[in-house]
């Protein structure tokens, strides 16, 4: 522990060097602003600024890229809460309760809770990086295709039943998402599937286009005739972003649980932040005494996934830098930034480049403090977005959606894709289906299929491998338990409905 503290102190010395501090601030500022814009996430910002790192020293270059990453995490939450527009797919689940809070005039409170959750979770993630990196790397090595498939299965089942209404509808939406996920070229055989002869679908559907369509365009179509202000009667004073003691108490345990979920998944290579936020939300809904209120404006539905997202973001750097295995596309870009500088990620990185490893860890804390300082004056501006009427706000949002979706692959086809999923999402909403499980199924679909097939190849087609390996067996058991709980809850609801008409007669 003493050595870790000494190394961290050295890292703060590196992070507080003037040019490093300047690039960290630049990173979090750009990340925050880009995160607020609908359709423009960390992936777009890092892609645009990656060439800049060619002429930079490795330490400030990596600090800047990391600052964009976690700065956009908070910025993305702003768009999700105020406008129901997740600029980064992990924030799609924040829309479920964040936007209803805005419509109730509590947008400032939701943003305040998000700020607290982000700083707390990021701090825990940093401490985990400092003290538990060797242990988490050892745990990560134990996760092969079998274990990854089993945990993805648990995530799918938990996410399918997290939506309001019938669990069967949630499962149907997840299956639709899984079907969307297999569109494109098969990784193992090279066969093009479900493309309907369209060459643009050979690489599959675009995640950003689906997220923007289901949550941004669909919401616009549902409210196209609405001409009033988003939060009629919403308080717009700066002090309204400060949650009350009761609201803090209500959010504290969800915040802690979300942080733990994010930390656990951050150590597992190959698991992106989207699954983390969905599972954190599903966990809160499962253990809540009032699960039916989720989706109507629960602070727990904002605090837990946002905490999971931020702790995951910090801990994600462990497998990326220690093993060279990125957790998602953004981490892959940051990994590319290291390789551009001629630095090979791996266990030797800590000893060969301590200025990069410990300087980066210290810069996380510095950057998160800068984010809090930056957003205290800016939060009033974000909340004032509540005053903009729909007739001005949503056409502007649609423009940014189009720009953001186009920028992912410079393809007009992606814009049509977002529009198509906007129409699909609006139809499903009219039929009282939750669209969130579609995104979960789409994200996990390819990973579930790939790891399932790999596991069967390793076991020569023996399905028993999923219960013979201890970690996998535990997750399969948890999945089975979740299904049984749903069946029991459904049977109990039916029993209560049958019993209700009998009560007046008995009286």
List strands and helices in order, with pairings.
Layout: H1 2-15, H2 18-36, H3 42-49, H4 58-83, H5 92-103, H6 107-141, H7 145-160, H8 167-181, E1 184-185, E2 192-193, H9 207-222, H10 245-266, H11 273-287, H12 300-315, H13 317-322, H14 329-340, H15 349-352, H16 354-384, H17 390-409, H18 412-430, H19 436-458, H20 465-468, H21 470-499, H22 502-506
Helix pairs in contact: 1-16, 2-4, 2-16, 3-4, 3-14, 4-5, 4-6, 4-12, 4-14, 4-16, 5-6, 5-12, 6-10, 6-12, 6-16, 7-8, 7-11, 7-19, 7-21, 8-19, 9-17, 9-18, 9-19, 10-11, 10-12, 11-12, 17-18
Q: State the shape.
A: globular
How much of the sequence lies in strands comes to under 5%
Strand-and-helix sequence, N→C? HHHHHHHHEEHHHHHHHHHHHHHH
Structural class: mainly alpha
Could you estimate the helical fraction of the residues in percent?
Answer: over 70%
- Note the total helix count: 22
- Contiguous low-pLDDT stretches (5 residues minimum) are 229-236, 502-507
Spatial extent as radius of gyration: 23 Å
**Biggest β-sheet strands, sense, barrel:** 2 strands, antiparallel
Protein name: DUF112 domain-containing protein
Transmembrane segments: 21-50, 62-83, 110-133, 139-158, 170-187, 207-234, 255-283, 323-344, 356-383, 389-406, 418-444, 471-491
Keywords: Membrane, Transmembrane, Transmembrane helix
InterPro entries: DUF112_TM
């Amino acid at each position: 522990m003493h050595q870790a503290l000494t190394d961290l102190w050295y890292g703060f010395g590196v992070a507080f060097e003037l040019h490093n501090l300047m690039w960290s601030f630049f990173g979090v500022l750009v990340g925050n602003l880009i995160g607020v814009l609908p359709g423009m996430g960390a992936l777009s910002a890092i892609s645009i600024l990656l060439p800049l790192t060619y002429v930079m020293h490795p330490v400030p270059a990596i600090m800047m890229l990391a600052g964009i990453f976690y700065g956009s995490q908070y910025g993305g939450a702003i768009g999700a809460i105020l406008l129901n527009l997740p600029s980064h797919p992990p924030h799609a689940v924040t829309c479920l309760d964040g936007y209803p809070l805005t419509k109730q005039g509590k947008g400032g409170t939701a943003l305040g809770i998000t700020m607290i959750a982000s700083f707390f979770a990021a701090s825990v993630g940093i401490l985990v990086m400092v003290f538990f990196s060797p242990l988490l790397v050892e745990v990560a090595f134990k996760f092969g295709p079998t274990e990854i498939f089993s945990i993805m299965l648990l995530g799918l089942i938990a996410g399918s039943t997290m939506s309001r209404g019938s669990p069967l509808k949630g499962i149907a939406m997840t299956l639709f998402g899984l079907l969307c996920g297999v569109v494109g070229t098969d990784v193992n055989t090279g066969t093009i599937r479900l493309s309907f002869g369209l060459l643009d679908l050979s690489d599959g559907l675009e995640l950003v286009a689906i997220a923007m369509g289901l949550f941004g365009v669909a919401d616009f179509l549902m409210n196209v005739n609405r001409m009033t202000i988003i939060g009629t009667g919403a308080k717009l004073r700066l002090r309204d972003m400060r949650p009350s003691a009761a609201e803090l108490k209500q959010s504290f345990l969800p915040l802690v649980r979300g942080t733990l979920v994010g930390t656990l998944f951050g150590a597992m290579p190959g698991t992106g932040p989207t699954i983390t936020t969905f599972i954190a939300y599903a966990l809160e809904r499962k253990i809540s005494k009032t699960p039916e209120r989720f989706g109507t404006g629960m602070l727990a539905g904002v605090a837990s996934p946002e905490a999971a997202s931020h702790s995951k973001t910090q801990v994600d750097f462990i497998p990326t830098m220690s093993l060279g295995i990125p957790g998602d596309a953004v981490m892959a870009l940051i990994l590319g930034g290291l390789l551009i500088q001629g630095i090979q990620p791996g266990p030797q990185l800590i000893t060969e480049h301590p200025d990069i490893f410990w300087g980066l860890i210290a810069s996380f804390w510095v950057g998160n403090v800068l984010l809090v300082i930056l957003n205290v004056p800016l939060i009033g501006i974000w909340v004032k977005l509540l005053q903009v009427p729909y007739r001005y706000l949503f056409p502007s949002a649609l423009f940014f959606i189009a720009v953001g979706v186009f920028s992912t692959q410079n393809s007009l086809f992606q814009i049509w894709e977002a529009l198509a999923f906007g129409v699909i999402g609006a139809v499903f909403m009219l039929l009282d289906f939750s669209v969130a499980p579609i995104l979960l199924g789409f994200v996990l679909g390819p990973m579930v299929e790939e790891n399932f097939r790999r596991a069967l190849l390793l076991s020569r087609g023996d399905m028993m491998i999923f219960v013979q390996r201890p970690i996998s067996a535990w997750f399969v058991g948890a999945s089975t338990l979740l299904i049984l709980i749903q069946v029991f809850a459904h049977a109990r609801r039916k029993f209560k409905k049958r019993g209700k008409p009998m009560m007046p007669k008995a009286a």
